[in-house]
Write a structure and sequence with these properties.
Shape: flat
Number of strands: 14
Structural class: alpha/beta
Number of domains: 2
Distance between the termini: 33 Å
Length: 373
């Protein structure tokens, strides 16, 4: 279950520094930088674009390269040089003059790429020509366009459209390479090379782990989070009890303040870097964000465990044994919830932010006159 911590941390690190749809923008040396919850670049950019947030869009031409990261990423403009995009949903409808490197869950490439294309995700749709070579790695890949150079294809299932063509060599990586059917119009048999999935670099991350591997990871995560929660509660019982009370009394406020606190820390990195001299403090903000993220998840899981054991009739944890039971119960429930598709991710974020919010109120509430009841 430890792997569930990483999406939470990186999601937090990608969170905007501002809570509303307002965005922070800055230009220097011809390059443009923008961050916020919803950010749209609407003015033509002579240099490079760096944009991050929850929902990011580029709707004006970019002379240089585009660097885009967010939950929803949309490129609806032409890029003169290279494209680097990462997000859960990435939609490319603008032409790329150089290479395109795209990663995420659902990727759609609907405009020509003049250089090489590298796309790694879960669902990939290519419907525009690629002038160079292409690397497509995903669970489901749909190709309905011409690739002038070589293609390295690693996929569980592949669908060939009428316009699909490979001008160079088609390298197929699969658990059963011989089972992957390739129409003659896509590539002739003499231009197809078949490889076992193990030969594809990064294939370990693409293959779905077996049941026992997932169970091992889940149990390991429960043990680690449970031990952290137990140690925290045993070493500072009064402090943890206060955190628990704050989170249970006003969970919505804790969730909101956890999001805001972590977003502020991450946003401070951008602004410190902009000042030049303040860049030396960026590592401090990064460490603080990571500590708040990990601490928030552990506290949130412990709060969940105390609530669950209370419902079961055990009452408030008064001994180290009681606290250990609550910590492990919360870690197990949080890990089980994370396995639920889609809704599990949202529930995990809620647990994470509630715990972080309790920490924020405890540490900074008095200074900002936040009611701590």
């Amino acid at each position: 279950m430890l792997k569930f911590l990483y999406p939470l941390l990186f999601a937090a690190l990608a969170a905007p520094a501002l809570a509303d749809d307002a965005a922070s923008a800055w230009s220097f040396g011809g390059d443009s930088y923008a961050a916020g919850r919803t950010v749209t670049a609407t003015s033509e950019i002579d240099g490079d674009l760096f944009i991050a947030g929850y929902n990011v869009k580029a709707r004006a031409d970019i002379t240089g390269s585009a660097h885009m990261a967010g939950r929803y990423v949309t490129l609806d403009a032409d890029v003169g040089q290279n494209l680097y995009a990462a997000g859960a949903d990435v939609d490319v409808t603008g032409a790329v003059g150089g290479n395109a490197s795209v990663s995420g869950e659902t990727l759609s490439i609907g405009a020509p790429v003049s250089g090489n294309l590298r796309a790694i995700g879960s669902n990939i749709e290519l419907s525009a020509p690629v002038a160079g070579n292409a690397v497509l790695a995903g669970q489901e890949v749909e190709i309905d366009a011409a690739i002038a150079g070589d293609l390295a294809l690693a996929a569980e299932t592949v669908e060939w459209g009428e316009a699909a063509r490979v001008g160079g060599t088609l390298h197929i990586y699969a658990n059963d390479p011989a089972a992957v059917e390739v129409p003659e119009r896509v590539a002739s048999a003499d231009r197809i090379e078949r490889h076992d999935m193990s030969e594809f670099e990064g294939a370990e991350g693409m293959q779905r782990p077996g049941f026992f591997a997932r169970l091992k990871g889940w149990v390991g995560g429960v043990v680690v989070v449970g031990l952290l929660g137990t140690a925290f509660a045993a070493l500072a019982p009064n402090y943890v009890a206060e955190l628990r009370q704050k989170a249970l009394n006003r969970p919505v406020r804790s969730l909101w303040l956890g999001f805001l606190g972590l977003s502020t820390l991450v946003g401070s990195m951008l602004f410190l870097a902009m000042t030049g001299i303040g860049i030396v403090l960026v590592p401090v903000s990064l460490i603080a964000a990571i500590l708040l993220g990990v601490g928030g998840y552990v506290v949130g899981a412990y709060v969940l465990g105390v609530w669950a054991t209370g419902v079961a009739g055990r009452g408030e944890p008064a001994t180290i044994a009681d606290r250990a039971i609550a910590a492990f119960a919360g870690a197990a429930i949080a890990g089980a919830v994370a396995l639920v598709p889609w809704l599990g991710w949202l529930a995990m974020m809620a647990i994470f932010f509630v715990g972080a919010g309790a920490l924020v109120v405890r540490m900074f509430g008095p200074a900002f006159r936040v009611e701590q009841a």
